[in-house]
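Revision sheet: structure tokens.
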Amino acid sequence: MMISVILVVAISLVALVSTISLMGKGDSNYSSATKGNLLNLSYIYIGLALVLTVGIFYFIIKLA
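Predicted:
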């Protein structure tokens, strides 16, 4: 069970770092046109992190 928690955290961190590292790349027209998309994607990551955290704690409490 601990391996799955570590795996979820590791995949989430890799996805977040990858998204942030790609922010500065691309041409100027593309980056100016898609600022809102990056903000929406950040909100999705934050929401997903909250849902996964609640789910993991619920799963751990349910097993105990």
